Amino acid sequence: MTRSQKIAVTIIKPLYHIFLSWEVRGRKNVPPSGPLIVVANHVHVIDGELLLFGVSRWIIYMAKERLFHYPILRSLLRWAGALVVYRQGTFNDTRKLLKQVEQTLNKGSVIGIFPEGKRSHQGKLQAGKPGLALLASRMHIPILPVGISGTDKIHGISWLWKRPHIVINIGKPFYLPQPDGRLTKLQRKTLTDLMMQEIATLLPHEYQGVYTEHGD
Question: Containing domain of residue 187, as a range?
């Protein structure tokens, strides 16, 4: 974490305590150093900041390419170290992104990802997409699962005085099995489901969605 990033966190974090009631569980599970992939459910736009406060290590996220079209936002994303995702990208674009992710992890940094690929407006966990689950498996990188509950209560304007309670529940790091050769579609789904189930166990039953009861 750079000096300017530390200053930003120091300034912004207290504001979240003013407007929201939130707690972090399992902070001791966060490795203090080394490469790490943080995976969490995604309900609200502030989930990224809450993950950052909970993990207490700078997290590098991926941002849609169109967000880099706006000068001020582009500067902010570059300052944060965000990686570019092309929604309708070519195979080469995907390969380039995965290469950047690999290089970032090899530096001992933290990559943050919301495996659902989009926000769940109902608050329930949606099916995960393969993506980094495959990379984490091949590189044998530890994955830190996090379940965020309560941000679905942030809507309208009444939340400003209701101060909904939010829980950032951090699980223990785990490794996905390393593949032997080229993976089939079923094997890719199995790896992804293993990762999503780790997130589901950290969420209240009503938030587990398609992974309720571990998919049974």
Answer: 3-215
pLDDT tens, position by position, 62-88: 888 888 888 999 999 999 999 888 766
46: Cβ contacts below 8 Å, ≥ 6 apart: 16, 151, 154
Q: How many domains does the chain have?
A: 1
**Integer angstrom CA distances of residue 118 from 58, 115, 121, 125:** 22, 8, 9, 11
Distance from C-alpha of 83 to C-alpha of 192, rounded to nearest angstrom: 21
d(Cα 29, Cα 145) in Å, to the nearest integer? 10
Q: What's the angle, vertex CA 28, arms to CA 42 and CA 14, rounded to 5?
A: 60
For 17-62, give the DSSP string.
Answer: HHH-EEEEE-GGGS-SSS-EEEEE---STTHHHHHHHHH-S-EE-E
How far apart, in Å, are the Cα atoms of 174 and each of 19, 38, 137? 33, 11, 10
Answer whether 11's CB lies under 8 Å from 3's CB.
Answer: no
DSSP alpha helix (H) spans, the chain: 3-19, 47-55, 71-80, 91-106, 132-139, 159-162, 185-200
Strand partners, 64: 85
Cβ atoms of residues 122 and 210 within 8 Å: no
Per-residue pLDDT reduced to its tens digit, 187-210: 888 999 999 999 999 999 999 999
User: What residue type is 68 in one-letter code?
Assistant: F
Contact 121, 70 (CB under 8 A): no
